[in-house]
Amino acid sequence: MKKSAILLLLILIILIGSFLRLYRLTEIPAGLMQDEAGGGYDAYALIQTGKDHHGVKLPVTFQAFNDWVSHSYTYQLIPFVTTFGLSVFSIRLSVVALSLVTVILMYYLGKILTGNNLLSILMAFFFSVSQFAVTISRWSIPPNTVPFYTALSLFVFYSGIQSIHKRNLLLGLSGLLFGLTLYTYPSIEGILPVWIIGSLILVIKAKKKTFRKLGLLIIVFVLTALPLFINHLTNPQTVTSRLSMISIVSLTNNPLLNYLKNYLSYYLPFFLFLPGEINPTRTVPGYGYENPVLGLFYYIGLFYLFFRYKALVNQFPQLDKTKINSLRLFVLLFPLIPSLTLPSGDFQRATHYLPIMIFIISIGIFLSYDFLIRITFKTRQTGARFIIISFVTLYLYFQYSYFRSYFGPLYQGITQWYFQNGLEEVVKFTSLNEKSYQTIVIDNTINMPYIYVLFYKKVDPNTLDYQDFAQIDPQTKWLSVKKFQSYSFQKVSEEDIQGGKLLKNIYNSPFSNYVIYEKDKNLIVKFEITN
């Protein structure tokens, strides 16, 4: 395949991926998740004060709402917030940008693994139009950035193994990138070090004389990761607080059995390719994470990876046994930490697997095509053409069906609820009128309403009293901000608004509204279920 053809195909693939990720970016998902608002405002605060909204200077890990899940994510928002201002568009654009770069990385990852241009193009294409990759790239939280770091780290690592003249540079750089990857999301912290050690053992075992300087990778990796682990040791709640809320140990009676069930769920088609997920922030209800047609090729690819590796080596001589074994190790390790949590098969906690999953799918498709051509050669490939056309038609049908639903009004209505649509209008209205009232009371039935006031109002971080954001609910263990400035956050009952004057009704979703009342020189925002 000529370089010009490869370049044109990659440009076309990036354009398709760009459209899927940028089209109506601020409208779908409609609204803003509280974690998005928190990360965005912390970036805004860092730009102006060097501190997050809790008053911590240049934190290694960021406190969200009494859970510590954001490390590098908030820092990578800074150039986007600096350039475009604090907005839904700027923070979501940061994840879109990383996802589009990952499309290119997928091509180069395929190339360094196999040396095959066609397979590499397949990997770039399937990541570009991946249902899961597109869905998570359109809203901005830490796990949605992980595929970029995983793909980049793996590409540089395998390049270092393969290189002769730039080996030390590439291996040292891969150690740095692996270390930085640990800062992206907690679920990869317990997996990546084990995989690195296992992969290096495989390399040393296969090429003892060639790779005596692998220690550079380990040294750079340890030095890069050291601040994170020191932070965990000195502040254990950065690890335990969130895990205690979602772990199988806390939430189930038989954690060992449930761990095994969780682990296996990450390999089952019910969770991957069929509609097993119930959280619409990850996928459209009624659909799996990925196109069901790709499920067949995923399991074919796994079969070849684990049981027919010689056929892989024959097809792709550059994909040697050392690379195959390290990929096998990644496949076996990736659910280890996500399996500690509920719900089962939650792939947003395993986004580090997505680049490898796309690679395995592409392997399955490539080898299936080759097999069909060979077995139908005597019939002049008529049978192969029919089967290939059938699969392509089914794939395009499911792909079209998913994105038609994703960009359609029904899914938009569902996400309006989950992403707390309408709060921008609420904050805009209260901000314009706050000087006319003693207190603005906002219903804390809304999830973390204070962060939306900070975000949409663009509150000057220099004016914050950090004690206002240090209140923890003793029962739920979540952050419970009661007030700041003239804003108060509490449960608003019917009695609280009785006799008040209705000022505005703001649409949230097909199921609910924000209703704003005036009463006793107070402005009261109540969250009301309508259906």
Strand content: 5-15%
Largest sheet, spatial ordering of strands: 4-5-3-8-7-6
Rough outline: globular
Find the count of extended strands (DSSP E, 2+ residues).
Answer: 8
- Secondary structure class reads alpha/beta
How many structurally independent domains?
Answer: 2
Number of alpha- plus pi-helical segments: 23
Distance between the termini: 57 Å
The helical percent reads: 55-70%
Let me know the largest β-sheet: 6 strands, mixed
Average of the residue pLDDT scores? 91
Poorly predicted parts: none
Q: Any idea what the radius of gyration is?
A: 25 Å
What does this structure look like?
The chain is α/β, with parallel strands linked by helices. The protein has 2 domains: 3-31 and 87-409, no CATH class; 421-529, no CATH class. It contains 23 helices and 8 strands. The strands form 2 sheets. The protein has a 6-stranded mixed sheet with strand order 4-5-3-8-7-6. A two-stranded antiparallel ribbon has the order 1-2. Strand 1 (62-63) and strand 2 form a beta hairpin. Helix 2 (34-49) packs across helix 22, helix 5 (117-128) crosses helix 18 and helix 18 packs antiparallel against helix 19. The longest helix is centred in the first third of the chain and has 27 residues, at 88-114.
